[in-house]
Amino acid sequence: MVVQLINFVIFFAILNVVFLRPVSSAIRRRRQYINGLVSDYDEHQAEARSLREQAEAVRASARLKAEQRVGAARAQASNEAAELATRYSQRVQSVVGEAQQTAQREFDEAQGGESEAARRVANFMLDRVIPEASG
Predict the structure, then answer these.
(1) Is residue 129 part of a domain?
(2) C-alpha 8: how far from its chain's center?
(3) How many CB atoms lie within 10 A of CB 127?
(4) C-alpha closest to that of 11 among 27, 3, 23
(5) Would you say residue 135 has pLDDT above 60?
(6) What Å distances lie between residue 31 and 12, 23, 113, CA to CA?
(7) 21 assigned to some structural domain
(8) What is the dihedral of CA 89, 94, 98, 100, to 10 degrees?
């Protein structure tokens, strides 16, 4: 029995040196590697979340700036359209005024020359009807 006990102690010492220590060491290194990966994964997840939040903030800021620029451009276009409408309205009023003045002038000229034309037509008709009266 003593020999078996010594044999068991020797076997256990050899087993410890050849198998248990290397396996235990490998398990410990593997556990550290896995813990490191989990820690890195958590860090990268937090970093990804932070980057997503930053990207969303940049997008929101860009949207706001774009909306402001579009609003400013719309306001400017509206102002330019109103300015053009006013300018063309003034031109139309000017052309209408000139046309009215020209029409009034021509009407006045026609009325002024009307009595002379009427007298000529009357004389012409008289000459045709009564040839001796023209003499």
Answers:
(1) no
(2) 84
(3) 13
(4) 3
(5) no
(6) 25, 12, 120
(7) yes
(8) 50
pLDDT in tens, 75-132: 999 999 999 999 999 999 999 999 899 988 887 777 766 677 777 877 887 777 776 6
Q: Whole-angstrom Cα distance, residue 131 to residue 127?
A: 5
Residue 133 has pLDDT above 80, yes or no: no
Q: Is residue 11 part of a domain?
A: yes
Domain of 67, in residue numbers: 2-119
What per-residue string of b and e applies to 44-78 under the rule 16 or more CB within 10 Å gives b?
A: eeeeeeeeeeeeeeeeeeeeeeeeeeeeeeeeeee
Look at the chain and report how many structural domains it folds into.
Answer: 1
Straight-line distance from the first to the last Cα atom of the chain, in angstroms, rounded to the nearest whole number: 183
Closest by CA position to 21, among listed 13, 11, 31: 13
pLDDT tens per residue, range 2-48? 899 999 999 999 998 888 899 999 999 999 999 999 999 999 999 99
Q: Give domain status of residue 126, yes or no.
A: no
